Amino acid sequence: MSFARNLPIARKFTLAFGLVCILCLGLGTYSFFTFRSIVSKCLAVSDDSFPSVVHLARIQLSIDLVRRSDLALLLCQTPECTALNTAQRQRALDEYRAALKGYEPLIGHPGEREFYQKFVDSFDQYLELSRLGGAQRAAGKIGDALDTIASDAAVNSMSQAGNAVAGDLELNIRLGSEASRSATAVSRAPSGSIWP
């Protein structure tokens, strides 16, 4: 202790100031990396998970509208009904393609590619049956068209596509929620505990 007493006051100020500067540098470094971690987690939610959920919801809705339009076309008795449901089906297909194009660049998490491939393949299988049913309906073979659209293959394709989209939605919701909770937990760390 006599060493500190014998130091000139200028030297004491220099040592104290140096210590404060070192502590500030350490705190600044910690804060920089903590804020970068929060930002990266927030970006994962805002630039990936949330847009993925939006596109997947649009895909799911479009798939359902195509199926509903196909079934409604089988019941149509007037040209107006046929035109209305044909236009609705085409809008749903356009929306599906647009949402698919928006979603493709966002695929990055493990499991997303498998879900994506499964619902695209399953819906493509359904669309082939839908085209066949549409050709049969246009030829006046309503019974054959109904058999095609309501076949086990068509029902299974739609079910597989719906389940894959739902699984992908659930995955993105879970990933987004985890990243959001993690960012919130880091930002709520008590100010007294600076170091993790």
Explain what the structure shows.
The protein is mostly helical. The chain has a single domain (2-187), classed as Four Helix Bundle (Hemerythrin (Met), subunit A) (Up-down Bundle), CATH 1.20.120.1730. Helices cover 86% and strands 0% of the residues. It contains six helices and no strands. The chain has helices at residues 2-6, 9-75, 79-103, 112-138, 142-149, 152-187. The protein is rod-shaped and about 110 Å long. The model is unreliable at 191-196 (pLDDT under 50).
**Annotated CATH architecture:** Up-down Bundle
**Averaged pLDDT:** 84
Helix content: over 70%
By helix and strand content, what is the structural category? mainly alpha
Per CATH, the class reads Mainly Alpha
How many strands, which pairing sense, and closed or not: the largest β-sheet?
Answer: none
Strand content: under 5%
Give the tally of structural domains: 1
Distance between the termini: 33 Å
- Extract low-pLDDT stretches: 191-196
Q: Supply the number of helical segments.
A: 6
Order of helices and strands: HHHHHH
Alpha-carbon Rg, integer: 30 Å
Query: Which descriptor suits the 3D outline?
Result: rod-shaped
Number of strands: 0
Task: Give keywords.
single chain, 0% strand, rod-shaped, Four Helix Bundle (Hemerythrin (Met), subunit A), 196 residues, mainly alpha
